[in-house]
Each structure stands twice: as structure tokens, then as C-alpha cells.
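Need a sequence for this fold. Nothing fancy.
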């Protein structure tokens, strides 16, 4: 028997989930935040470079929108970009008011035409923002939190979402927001915490929601070899260079991430030379590199690309609404179309703040869940087993849907028993062109015939849609 439903169930305690929970509780809603692991398990905690937002005197939302759309290679949904860039500055200023200790100077990152990235100690932004939001959630009386609780499936009845099924029983809510992050840890080389294997995509698709843009996995070029430690783009912005095994530069370090990643894969073994940058600007990161056994002051350090950011996800409108009544998605779990085929650096934390809040406000308008608990209690189904990703599966996804993709490999991955791995391969096979972060070795140029978003609804064929 389910416990009494809350107004809003938020699955995920990263930037999107915490923002949604606080926005709903401020309006008097009862909120339950559920998380698979513990607070440090979110990508939000690990975010480094910062949060984009047109807050500088020489900047405007329109300029931020132009840069976002240029990065997205003809695929950004213009209405979503407008929302992100116009509401972004207010969300960043709210964080300042809440006490996030942003560095005094705005940073310039690749693809941005203005200094518009707010950061904390160069590379500690995610930790600073997420831990502050987490402390506020803990202090807010209307919000309860449950850690180490895996959402295994949606609780569905008559096509409506009533909440989620967990190993400890069902959890009912008037509305549910999936803020469960992305799928990048499904790839063997990844910057994401281990649990980020695309559970939102798996459970929403299994329940009948549409998913989109799953071919677009952004690979970050500079990740410390043999680890998940990302070495922020800001280092290259400050003059760090990439060297091959002869000690020679081979690529413009500030070219778009996808170009740098491909140049590195073609080279094989690559090192990042940090010897000439001001290491005092990145104290936490330098300490982590040293803890991993490297001395950035004396030797270039080995790096290689890793899966980093899931552009696709559960299809939503501009207030996080999915195809399923009662179900919303926000942050990296959602596919709003805002990033097109390539995410502009530092737009994803902003996406969490802007769309997390919007989803919460829209979710509060949902009618009460028809649990009929007094007269005819609904019997929730037994939950399915937890989804896991073995090392073997992660290695296969890396090999067959990596930085440069061969259609024969993708055809093999389509047969994977893992639903998300198979979906990624289906999308990547369908897009027989190269655009943004998706690169096909058999079709290396963009093709105007593919200027749209691939969308899949359970039981149907993939369709190419044009989102305005
Ligand atoms: C190393 C690194 C550096 C980055 N740097 C930047 C940056 O500088 N700027 C920027 O804009 N972006 C950056 N990003 C991307 C950005 O951090 C993420 O896109 C963003 O934080 C995603 O937030 P989210 O709230 O959507 O998900 P997450 O922060 O990933 O949170 C997901 C939550 O869902 C929970 N969850 C997952 N599955 C389940 C389940 N089955 N049941 C219950 N709970 C579940 C997790 O436990 C977690 O609490 C970086 C990412 C990484 C990994």
C-alpha cells in the first residue's frame, strides 16, 4: 500500500532536482526528493567551469542565444533557447543573492562571444552551487529527502503517472519530475558518476514517453587518462596545450569540443601541458591531479576524451511536460531541443536552473492523482529489477558508439539487451550524417535532409521532427 501522496515527487538531487524542489516548496507544496545514491553522486556536484548567463554589462540574452544556436548546428529549438537565455540572468542573480561565492570576473569559454560564465574558484562551481542548494533543501520544512532509493519504474495507471516504484515500495505523488541526469556513464570512458546510466530514459520510455536526440552524446576532450577527472576547458583558455607523443601540438586547443576530441582520437596518445598556466587559479583541480599521481608543474599529463553530456533524453515542452500526464522531466534527463546538436559550454547548469524551476511551477498545476486510496486502493505492480551497467556493456558502448561511429558497430549495438544502449545505437544509425557531436565515418558532412530532431515513441518508428 502506498503512503499518502505528496504534491511533488522529484527524482534526482542534482541542480535540476534541487531547484525544482525549492521552487515548489516556496509555493507551499509538499515535496519528496528521491536519489539513487548520495549527494556527491550527481554530475552537478562535479561541474567545474561554471554557469553561462548574460549578466555582464556588454552582454545581452540575444547575443547568448546567437552563440547557443551557432554551437547547436541548425538544430536548437529557438523557443527553448529564448527561454534559457532570457530567464538565465535572473536565475544566476538568485544564486548570488543566496550566497554562492562567484569569482569577481566572468570567464570566457569556447563558443561564447562575451565573458559570461560565472564560476567559483575557477573549477569548483558545481560543488558550490549544489551544496548550497542542498543545504537549503535540508532546511526547508516542506521538503523531505530520501537517499539510496532507486526509482526502478514509473507507477502508471490508465496512462497517467502516479509516482514511482522503488525496492522499498511505491511512492505516490500528484506530479513527478524526473531530474535524474544523463547517460554518459554508460560509456566506459566517462566524466559522470557511475550511476548516471540513463535511468530516466529507460523508465520513461518503458512507460510510453517519447525520447529524442539520443545520438547526440557530447565527448569532453580533456579527461585525465584512466580516471573520470575532467580538466576544464578554462585551462586551455588560459594557455594549456595538447601535445602528441613527439611533444608537438596538433590541434587548435580552443576549437569546438567535438573537433578537438576527434583530433585526439586520431592521434592515439595525447598529453595536456599545464606547466605554463597559473595553477593558483585552479587550486582544487591541481590538488586532484597531484592526488592522482601527476605533477602538473613539471610534466605534461596524459588525457583522452570521455563521454560527458547527454543532449537527448525524455521529450518535454518548455515547462518540462512529457507525453505522459503527471510526468515532467528537467535538466540533463530532458530533451527540450535547447542544445541542438552540440551543447555550448556552461549552458547545462543554466538549463537545470531555468527548466527545473519551470517544471516545478507547471507540475503544481496538475490535478490530484486518482489513487482512489479510500474506496478502492490501487494495487501497484511489482517493480522490475534494478538496471545496471556491467564493465562489458560500458566497453561495448564506448567501442560501438564512441567519438567516431561506424554503422556496422552501431548495428551490433542495436541488439544490446540494455534498452538505453540499444536506443542510442538506433538513433545514431538513423542519423547517417555528421553533425555537432555525432560523427559517422561513412558520412562525414552535415546533410540538410537531417535538419530535425529524431523522436521515438514506444512501438512506433523513428520520426524526424522540426521543433520551433
Ligand atoms: C565533471 C563534470 C563537469 C561539468 N562541468 C560543467 C560546467 O562547468 N558547466 C555546466 O553547465 N555543466 C557542466 N557539466 C554538466 C552538468 O554538470 C550537468 O549537465 C548537470 O549538472 C546535470 O544536472 P541534473 O540535475 O540534470 O542531473 P545530475 O546532477 O546528474 O543529478 C542526477 C540525480 O539523479 C539521481 N538518479 C539517477 N538515477 C536515479 C534513479 N534510478 N533513482 C533515483 N535517483 C536517480 C542521481 O543520484 C542524482 O542525484 C559537467 C558535468 C560533469 C560530469
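Here you go.
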Amino acid at each position: 500500500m502506498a503512503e499518502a501522496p505528496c504534491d511533488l515527487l522529484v527524482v534526482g538531487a542534482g541542480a535540476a532536482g534541487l531547484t525544482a524542489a525549492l521552487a515548489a516548496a516556496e509555493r507551499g507544496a509538499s515535496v519528496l526528493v528521491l536519489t539513487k545514491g548520495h549527494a556527491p553522486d550527481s554530475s552537478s556536484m562535479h561541474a567545474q567551469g561554471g554557469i553561462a548567463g548574460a549578466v555582464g554589462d556588454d552582454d545581452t540574452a540575444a547575443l547568448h542565444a546567437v552563440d547557443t544556436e551557432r554551437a547547436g548546428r541548425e538544430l536548437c529549438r529557438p523557443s527553448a533557447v529564448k527561454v534559457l537565455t532570457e530567464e538565465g540572468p535572473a536565475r544566476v542573480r538568485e544564486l548570488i543573492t543566496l550566497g554562492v561565492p562567484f569569482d569577481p570576473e566572468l570567464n570566457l569559454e569556447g563558443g561564447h562571444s562575451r565573458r559570461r560564465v560565472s564560476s567559483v574558484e575557477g573549477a569548483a562551481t558545481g560543488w558550490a552551487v549544489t551544496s548550497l542548494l542542498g543545504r537549503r533543501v535540508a532546511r526547508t520544512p516542506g521538503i523531505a529527502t530520501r537517499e539510496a532509493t532507486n526509482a526502478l519504474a514509473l507507477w502508471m495507471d490508465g496512462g497517467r503517472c502516479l509516482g514511482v516504484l522503488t525496492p522499498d515500495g511505491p511512492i505516490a505523488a500528484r506530479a513527478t519530475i524526473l531530474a535524474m541526469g544523463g547517460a554518459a556513464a554508460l560509456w566506459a570512458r566517462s566524466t559522470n558518476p557511475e550511476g548516471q546510466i540513463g535511468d530516466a530514459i529507460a523508465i520513461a520510455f518503458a512507460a510510453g514517453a517519447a525520447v529524442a536526440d539520443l545520438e547526440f552524446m557530447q565527448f569532453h576532450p580533456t579527461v585525465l587518462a584512466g580516471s573520470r577527472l575532467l580538466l576544464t576547458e578554462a585551462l586551455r583558455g588560459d594557455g594549456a596545450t595538447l601535445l602528441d607523443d613527439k611533444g608537438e601540438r596538433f590541434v587548435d586547443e580552443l576549437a569546438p569540443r567535438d573537433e578537438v576530441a576527434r583530433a585526439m582520437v586520431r592521434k592515439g596518445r595525447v598529453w595536456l601541458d599545464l606547466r605554463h598556466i597559473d595553477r593558483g587559479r585552479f587550486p582544487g583541480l591541481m590538488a586532484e591531479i597531484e592526488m592522482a599521481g601527476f605533477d602538473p608543474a613539471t610534466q605534461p599529463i596524459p588525457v583522452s576524451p570521455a563521454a560527458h553530456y547527454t543532449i537527448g533524453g525524455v521529450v518535454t515542452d518548455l515547462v518540462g511536460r512529457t507525453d505522459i500526464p503527471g510526468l515532467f522531466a528537467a535538466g540533463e534527463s530532458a530533451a527540450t531541443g535547447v542544445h541542438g546538436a552540440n551543447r555550448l559550454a556552461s549552458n547545462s547548469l543554466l538549463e537545470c536552473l531555468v527548466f527545473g524551476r519551470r517544471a516545478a511551477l507547471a507540475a503544481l498545476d496538475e490535478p490530484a492523482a486518482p489513487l482512489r486510496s479510500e474506496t478502492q486502493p490501487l494495487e501497484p505492480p511489482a517493480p522490475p529489477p534494478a538496471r545496471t551497467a556491467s564493465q562489458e556493456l560500458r566497453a561495448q558502448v564506448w567501442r560501438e558508439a564512441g567519438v567516431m561511429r561506424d554503422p556496422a558497430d552501431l548495428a551490433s549495438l542495436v541488439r544490446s539487451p540494455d534498452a538505453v544502449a540499444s536506443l542510442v545505437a538506433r538513433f545514431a544509425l538513423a542519423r547517417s550524417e555528421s553533425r555537432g557531436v555525432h560523427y559517422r565515418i561513412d558520412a562525414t558532412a552535415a546533410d540538410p535532409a537531417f535538419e530535425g530532431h529524431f523522436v521515438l515513441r514506444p512501438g512506433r518508428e523513428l520520426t524526424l521532427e522540426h521543433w520551433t
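For context: The mean pLDDT is 94.
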